[in-house]
């Protein structure tokens, strides 16, 4: 899995699963696989697993779905969103200008960050991004991510959910870190504004329970579990 995860966090625990870890039936599902995301990290993760794919992002209003109230179940939310995206991408892959003839499987997913029982999604503005970063300083947060495999013929789906937890040291200058990340801009594309791989953040990571792959958005373990699970469903 050369080049993934990024060198800045390659020292942290990781999952090294590849396409060779799939069952024969699950491997067949990757023959003409569609990734329903334009996320750079999810594309890099599949590439590192030696899985070829075509990108067809889901056209979905994510914030219109699910419960994000304090204390709501993040596993339920990411499962709902991953499966809704899978259904939407399958429909797009079957017809219209983005149709992908011969699609054998669609992979989609979602991720949220959980901090003090609050579900955090992509920051809407600089003020929210600053609040997220300030909350991480000296504290912990967890990522909850789903990976959904959808069969384009039957519509059957299998979803794997994985959680990982980061512990941070105090940031010596929270405002400086926040301002720099906001200026770079990528923070607005990350759940919870969490950019664990960024060199401004890495020195402040004190511990990780889980794998860095899960933190970054798509764990190879989850991909394998979703594909193997779907293959089993299709045999029933």
CA-CA gap between termini? 33 Å
The secondary structure category is alpha/beta
Q: What can be said about the biggest beta sheet?
A: 7 strands, mixed
Total strand segments: 7
Strand content: 15-25%
What does the radius of gyration come to?
18 Å
Order of helices and strands: HEHEHEEHEEHEHH
Mean pLDDT across residues: 93
What is the number of helical segments per DSSP (H or I, 4+ residues)? Answer: 7
Instruction: Report low-confidence residues grouped into runs of 5 or more.
Output: none
Shape: globular
Helix content: 25-40%
Can you summarize this structure?
The protein is of the alpha/beta class and 236 residues long.
Structural summary, described in words:
The chain is an alpha/beta fold and 236 residues long. The protein is built from seven helices and seven strands; from the N terminus they run H-E-H-E-H-E-E-H-E-E-H-E-H-H. Strands 1, 2, 3, 4, 5, 6 and 7 form a seven-stranded mixed β-sheet that branches. Helix 2 (40-48) links the parallel strand 1 and strand 2 (54-55). Helix 4 packs across helix 5 (174-184). 47% of the residues are buried.
